[in-house]
Amino acid sequence: MSETQQPPHHSTLSYPLAAPAALQPPEEWPDLRQRCPVAPVTLPSGDRAALLTRYADVRLALSDPRLSRDGLARPDAARITAGEAGSIFDSPMARALNAEGHDRWRRMVGKWFTAKRMRALVPRIEAMTDRLVDDMLEHGQPADLLRHLAFPLPVYVICDMLGVPESDRDDFKTWSDTFLNLTKYSAADMQAAHRDFGTYMAALVEEKRRDPQDDLISELITATDGEGRPMSDLALAATGQALLLAGHETTAGFITTMAAVLLADRERWERLLGDRSLIRSAVEEVLRYEPYTGFGMLRYVHEDTEVPSGTVLTQGTTVVCSMAAANRDADAFEDADDVDLARTPNPHLAFGAGPHSCLGQPLARTEMQTVLAVLLRRLPTLDLAVDPARLRRVEGLITTPLRELPVNW
């Protein structure tokens, strides 16, 4: 990293940066983008990294093969937390998927996430959402939209995709909560959850092999790559685990923040009530506007690389790509700090970019659009039950979802 740039007012910033409120971005972003787009930061582990905040820099870092996720297990790569020692990138699930080859695995699984397949899922997602709204209405107001809708829906959707029986879906919710909570469960609890989940998925693969249905696991069992090779049983089970872990918390967070952003300014909600054709562009704008999508994506620099801002990232540097900061870059988006529900085009980076962009983004978009349509239809008077300034985010996680979203109707 160039030695000529330093972050304003600090020699090295502690990362992640604090935000003044749940729906506001860190105050440092504008200065960093303007004066120090490649900023030295210290991670919770104490390791040093380089923070990128400009759109053009982040997009290049996520797309350029000279920067990759593959190097993050190296001993010289920065760790997010102390004692992590690369475990995130060297778990049994990661090893099973890596053994398949990243590009090969993405091609095989990505065939499921087509526009046609996503459209076919809409009636089932809509029915699930209606059922959860019914339960929330029965609970009475105020109600927590996160607990009643945004948290359970993605689990139900993924279970439906994988062909998990209805009777087993509560187990998936329990496993998901265990994996994603860093403080609530002991190491023994985590190990037991990983073991039980792995055993369950292996048995599900065997069941689908005997009796295939119209679901992702059944399709992958018979699918082959361009050379006629099928996916291994270990990778099939790991795929189910990866989809639950990667797609659940992020989608739950997106749904919750979507509702919070749209309800924080009543004119936004009223505009959507008057023009449902804006639902698709509104979802994209919320994804762009999301003020604090968590840690960002890490990349390891394999060879010296100059980014558009003019800074050279030196080999061996660990880079933190802040997609949320990039999405507020005024050089990339007009009126970047304002919500424009009709913004088109909207090339935001909420799902990353390049070969490691989020595989499940078509599903996340479909869920968000469907949920928003159902809420507008079922609860046109939906409103926040607290001042937006009182909303809180979960601290201490790689992602930073809202703790709760109290609503009335």
UniProtKB/TrEMBL annotation:
CDD domains: Cyp158A-like (cd11031)
Keywords: Heme, Iron, Metal-binding, Monooxygenase, Oxidoreductase
Keyword RNA-binding: no
Entry cofactors: heme
InterPro entries: Cyt_P450, Cyt_P450_B, Cyt_P450_CS, Cyt_P450_sf
A Pfam match: p450
SUPFAM superfamilies the record matches: Cytochrome P450
Superkingdom of source: Bacteria
Membrane-spanning residues: none
Keyword Iron attached: yes
Similarity annotation: Belongs to the cytochrome P450 family.
Name listed for the protein in its UniProt record: Cytochrome P450
Source organism (scientific name): Streptomyces gilvifuscus
